[in-house]
Amino acid sequence: MTTSLADVASSGATLRAFLHGLPGVDRVGADQRAAMLGTRSIKTTAKAEAIDLAIRMVDLTTLEGADTPGKVRAMCAKAVHPDPSDPSVPKTAAVCVYPDMVGQAVDALAGSGVKVASVATAFPSGRSSLEVKVADTALAVAAGADEIDMVIDRGAFLSGDYLKVHEEIVAVKAACGPAHLKVILETGELATYDNVRRASWLAMLAGADFIKTSTGKIQPAATPPVTLIMLEAVRDFLAVTGRKVGVKPAGGIRTTKDAIKMLVMVNETVGEGWLDPDWFRLGASSLLNDLLMQRQKMATGRYAGPDYFTLD
Ligand SMILES: O=C[C@H](O)COP(=O)(O)O
User: Fold this and answer.
1) Strands 94-97 and 58-61, how do they pair?
2) What was the pLDDT predicted at 1?
3) Does the model's pTM come out above 0.90?
4) Does the N terminus or the C terminus of the chain have fewer Cβ atoms within 10 A?
């Protein structure tokens, strides 16, 4: 049975009552369950399939002040052909860049099927007016972004102004038009697991297509327990509303082992329906090379070494 939650955000009081009425997160239980899922091993064929799936789920990211058009073009080439010597390696899902680099990425990826995602809304702090955030979003979409990764106003959230956070997400979603909206919770600043659950629901209620853990600029970022809590939130949100939302852990995911732990967690928490780049992404600047090295090791029995692949 599905329920409409349309009136939950009709006032700050109703929204607060709803979010604080969510069941509390058992911190010890969440930590233990995430750790337990991280110990599951997968072997041979399943591991090879998991590596290719992880590659297909990567949002290959560069979000540095020193980003240049050349760096973005090189990253786009790598997203399309992660290992130019091996055409069997799949493409990544997307590249993720700052708004001023969207045009470069769109040109470099034309016809490839790799999406262009752009951070917006005064990433990473979110400290700007709503007008500027909406304009930032609209300009990135006009430049050709397929996906927008926005940050929530953590100051508003932590001071209990949930309605402001909700209104901003609604406004940015409207500015996205056809582009998909990923809402970054910046879980490393949310202080408690209860807040991670509340922020997940808040973002989904406001229209997020995806919920994303982190900007990559704050530690801790995409920890297993936080990812687990967000997966449980999308599962429960689907059960209540009938609407499916994706999840994107991002920040600090560097190894094949990290990525496979995430896939095991997806499978065990929300099931195979989320084991698809349409519903699960891995935001990472330097994971892809490790996936390529492990893939080659599985195929040839030896490591090529990090110098064999171009830099992420
Ligand atoms: O959205 C993705 C993150 O910014 C990437 O973080 P990372 O550099 O720790 O992989």
Assistant:
1) parallel
2) 46
3) yes
4) N
